[in-house]
Design a protein that fits this description.
This protein is 41% helix and 11% strand. The protein is an alpha/beta fold and 462 residues long. The strands form three sheets. Strands 2-8-7-6-5-3-4 form a seven-stranded mixed β-sheet, sandwiched between helices. It has a three-stranded antiparallel β-sheet with strand order 9-12-11, with helices on one face. Helix 5 runs parallel beside helix 11 and helix 16 crosses helix 18. The protein is globular. The structure holds pyridoxal-5'-phosphate. Pyridoxal-5'-phosphate (PLP) binds next to loops.
Length: 462
């Protein structure tokens, strides 16, 4: 017998060696392809339903497109001529990443004149549209956990980016009872020490709300009293020229004490019916802040095509532009009057008259009830239910069974939107088409059998 084997084993623990290098921890295998933040970004549904519309058109349907935020007018000749002229002059190369000086000077002149403040061109940065500065602003001023206040319903990109950058979304819920408007009283409780960006959007998408000077003064008072000094107001004024009933555009930057906290944002997409030009701009509180955004431009896209920027300078400064804008606003106003009046004759729909932009935001709670959309939504499987809503079901029913493209409430900020039954109807569609669309909505609003059949079929419910 091997005595040594019979001895009880003494287990000698290895002595901790403080000089030993720790075994490198194997990184956990990642299950998902993309970074976490990539799964948190939202989208703009107005673009996402494009393929569905095309599918219907390929089936031979004429879809009435009330989904788009794009004026249905051609680019004015004087602007188009300038772009062509600049291409012929070979302005087709890289240019100043901050924006070419003639355009920044034009923006500075116009913003200074209309807001009664003094802007220099080195505080202006040009972007490929009014959309990019939304995400870039949130990235630049917010650390994870910082808070972004934004209107809801509001332009979807405001909420979309909060998730992407890890900021806390703080939606300011706009109520129909107060005409989708708000003042200092509604804003005050949302402001905290971690507030870094406060987004305002007048005239507003999707409600068409226009701010009065007094309202902005009240909002400014609250921001001045409660918000940290580093918090920035992101004043999205891209619809500044689309106004009705003698309304005037007011900017919070004009209120004393606010210019130094406000980023004023504009662009050519709406005022000049030039969504394909991809020229937008922001005026920053300081030239140092503008320089940071110039560097972001260098990192992301180098610059914006110089010939379009020259076209934008002409668009802003030519007296011919005012005539075109007035013509466009008259057309929108006629469509608004007709569409609001008609919608209000449809059982289950209630629509207020917007003062600007080119959207209507009718309450369709009655239609949701009549068609059974609220119950149908409750019965959906959990995952689908979260990605849908009663107004989504009505939106999809209108599109697939009645061929009218609209947008649901969730498309304008989904946090806190449960129980709100609205559609956005864009009136950037010819009057005759709008009339056809309204007849289709009228028919759909009591097509209970069609709706039940649509739900049973179970396609396109979210
Ligand atoms: N801001 C708001 C409120 C909008 O509605 C839109 C477009 O619909 C944009 C910004 C972006 O416009 P652009 O086409 O200039 O990027």
């Amino acid at each position: 017998m091997n005595a040594t084997l019979d001895q009880p084993k003494t287990i000698t623990k290895p002595r901790p060696n403080k000089f030993a290098i720790a075994e490198p921890q194997k990184p956990k295998p990642r299950e998902r392809l993309f970074s976490d933040r990539t799964y948190r970004i939202g989208s703009e549904n107005a673009f996402r339903i494009g393929p569905q519309i095309r599918e219907l058109e390929l089936q031979g349907h004429k879809v009435i497109k009330c989904n788009l935020g794009e004026p249905d007018f051609p680019l004015a000749k004087h602007i188009a001529d300038e772009i062509k002229r600049q291409i012929d002059l070979d302005l087709t190369h890289y240019c100043d990443p901050q924006g070419i000086l003639p355009l920044r000077e034009a923006i500075a002149r116009i913003v200074s004149r209309t807001r009664k403040i003094d802007i220099s061109p080195d505080r202006v940065v040009v972007f490929p549209g009014g959309k990019p500065p939304i995400g870039l602003t949130q990235q630049t001023y917010c650390n994870p956990g910082d808070e972004v206040i934004y209107p809801s319903p509001g332009f979807p990109i405001y909420e979309s980016f909060t998730g992407y950058i890890g900021a806390k979304p703080v939606p300011l819920q706009l109520r129909e009872e107060t005409d989708f408007s708000f003042g200092g009283r509604e804003l005050a409780p949302l402001i905290s020490d971690r507030t870094r960006v406060i987004i305002l959007n007048f005239p507003s998408n999707p409600t068409g709300g226009v701010a009065t000077r007094e309202q902005l003064e009240e909002i400014a008072d609250v921001i001045y009293a409660k918000a940290p000094a580093q918090a920035r107001i992101y004043s999205d004024e891209i619809y500044e020229d689309i106004l009705f009933d003698g309304n005037h555009h007011h900017s919070i930057a004009s209120v004393p004490g606010m210019e130094e906290r406000t980023i004023i944002v504009g662009g050519v997409s709406k005022s000049f019916a030039w969504t394909g030009g991809r020229v937008g701009w922001a005026v920053f509180p300081t030239r140092e802040e503008a320089a940071v955004f110039k560097n972001l431009n260098i990192n992301y896209f180098s610059c914006i095509s110089a010939y379009n920027q020259m076209g934008a300078a002409v668009a802003l400064e030519s007296p011919l532009s005012a005539v075109e804008i007035a013509r466009m606003c008259d057309a929108f106003c006629e469509r608004r009057n007709m569409t609001v009046a008609e919608l209000n004759t449809i059982a289950g729909i209630r629509c207020r008259k917007p003062g600007g932009a080119f959207y209507l935001f009718p309450n369709i709670a009655g239609v949701c009830e009549t068609l059974g959309a609220i119950n149908a939504h409750k019965r959906m499987p959990a995952g689908d239910r979260e990605r849908s809503s009663p107004s989504t079901l009505v939106q999809m029913f209108l599109l697939w069974r009645h061929q009218v493209a609209t947008m649901d409430r969730r498309s304008f900020g989904s946090i806190g939107a449960a129980g709100q039954h609205y559609l956005r109807i864009s009136i950037a569609t010819a009057l005759d088409d709008l009339k056809i669309g309204l007849e289709r909505i009228r028919n759909a609003a009591h097509d209970i059998d069609g709706f039940q059949n649509f739900i049973q079929e179970g396609k396109h419910l979210c």
